[in-house]
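Dear all,

This email documents one entry for the complex benchmark we are building for the journal club exercise. For each entry we list the sequence lines for every component of the assembly. Then comes the predicted three-dimensional structure of the complex as a token string, followed by one or two observations. Please use this as the template for your own entries, and keep the labels exactly as they appear.
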Amino acid sequence: MKKRYLLAPGPTPVPEHVALAMATPMIHHRTPQFSKIFAEAAQLAKYMFQTEQDVLILASTGTGAMESCVTNLFSPGDKLLVINGGKFGERWGKIGETYGMEIVWHNVDWGQAADPKKIKEILDGDPDIRAVMVQACETSTTVAHPIEELAKLTRDRDNCLLVVDGITGVGVFELPMDKWGIDALVTGSQKALALPPGLAMVALSEKAWARADESKCPKFYFDLKKERKNLANDTSAYTPAVSLVTGLLEVLKGFKEEGIENVHKRHNRLARATRAGGKALGLQMIAPDSPADSTTGFFVPEGIDGAKFVKTLRDEFGVTMAGGQDQWKGKIFRVAHLGYFDTFDIILAMSAVEMALKKFGHNVQLGKGVAAAQEILLEAY
Amino acid sequence: MKKRYLLAPGPTPVPEHVALAMATPMIHHRTPQFSKIFAEAAQLAKYMFQTEQDVLILASTGTGAMESCVTNLFSPGDKLLVINGGKFGERWGKIGETYGMEIVWHNVDWGQAADPKKIKEILDGDPDIRAVMVQACETSTTVAHPIEELAKLTRDRDNCLLVVDGITGVGVFELPMDKWGIDALVTGSQKALALPPGLAMVALSEKAWARADESKCPKFYFDLKKERKNLANDTSAYTPAVSLVTGLLEVLKGFKEEGIENVHKRHNRLARATRAGGKALGLQMIAPDSPADSTTGFFVPEGIDGAKFVKTLRDEFGVTMAGGQDQWKGKIFRVAHLGYFDTFDIILAMSAVEMALKKFGHNVQLGKGVAAAQEILLEAY
């Protein structure tokens, strides 16, 4: 009967009514009954992506959709500018290298966002660069990269696309694909969408679709043109993940009902409350200058073993948060607040952090972080 | 309150306790809690595959796992012999062509199995052929290809692998990977495993793993060597489909409890009962000589529009069966009996077929197919 709480940035908790919708009897995917669900989910996904373009639904996790952008938009030898400030930025580059692209690595310190001025310089200096590859939120560092500013740079360059991993961005904060001019936008099911992992989505701009016609990379399972053709008939090229798509429709109906602006506001409020709570406890944020509203990371205070801290939270308090990866392994912890999260999840998180810090002998005033979070969370009431 | 019954060859019905297991609260994938589930599922999958090799679990449908065999085992220019007697045989060839392989198409009439003698001649005549690509059950025609006989041909040829799409074979009928010498075996979640679509599995022989070291195809999401390395640490390279893996473990525990031989016997009994029922009704089987135990197909009697027949079964009787594809579109129907199926599903199926035939004005004696099926189904009691 150990009670457990999931506060890691994906997978995130699945709402009970969505879990039950996914547990309803299986239906065949080539029936009017399922086509209706598939078409409605794809339609509502456009609302979430803030686009008039098709949103393609893939039976894979987000990495598969990232790969689909690389293999459908580019050809071996193409030069891609990869903004690399964490695990997922690095992944864009690794996928590109796998498919024979020339990667221009733009390394950014972990915890820092890309500087659009520097990106402009690079693009001005090298007109052969065919895309900027970036994360809306680099989950490993909790950084939000300046997508709107980057889109201003790529929008008027005929030769250059902006390809955005929005896996922990879409449905969390403002990322209006059409308005800003994002050329490829990807998300996954297990983040803001509050579904189990196993479903990914991707949308392409007109400019990107034109590029897809020229691409010379091999692809079969992740052939986006084939998916687009099938979507026109309310279906997918291969068997869709029926239960997850059924859950997706439930979640997207909820998004529509809450209103996308309110979804963003809620995430922003939870993020600000978490930051304020941490600040009140004297914790140092890992992305102080450009934190995303998806998840908030703090350095573990000196003298505390970060790996043990996260393990104790999980195994003793029953609260699963995320630790750090690579250079931040054992040094940080990350509190998620994307998806099916609201006021009292943040209270729970702050309280757990306070109690764990105390347990580790850190000088902390119990309730101080909670109180600071409460101040902000009260805005909603 | 329209009551619906799913009797199509995938997705197949999900057992209630499995659906509920998948609806339990989400857990983080990088925790000892989930690693235990993942490792146990992978271990039990070896029992189902009848192999000592690793069974890799992918977050994709079966087509993704088919692609992984092509991209991990071969290189552009490699010559592959594709047994093409239906939609899925054709798919092996299309994937191979996508990745630059030279496909030797061995066309087999729809409804017929490959003849091992002819395959031997082809292999003897062309030592450059690096693999035989085949389906254990070609779902579109319900044919079982002679995998054991084909394995005898490839086993002693150092240069040639046997790559088997077991999507509607594994967990249905005897397909002992190690004993027969199958080099790559693939399955998907939504068939015998009675799970929603979205999960695939693949296992490779030692001979195939050696080949994987030489492969020059690009792959990232479907990199099997990377998956194997991660499986050694009880995890997957990218986020696993947590809920589906949780369901997989439940199903595989059930397989172990029933015993794989009994699972095969049950499927065989249901298949024989369905065939006998159809025969009693004077229906002609679409794969009379080598029918698989996964699904049984019949030609719709002359004078009846097959598309309307299947539509009436679905929309009026509430019974979803599968129609035909391509050259058999509107000409056949297929009754599934793989996965969570037992005696009274077959009774239901035969009864629905009889009643629909009667409704379409066909001269049929009600209850005759049911009775013939009952005779065989009684073997179990």
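Observations: The radius of gyration of chain B is 21 Å. The first helix of chain B runs from residue 16 to 22.
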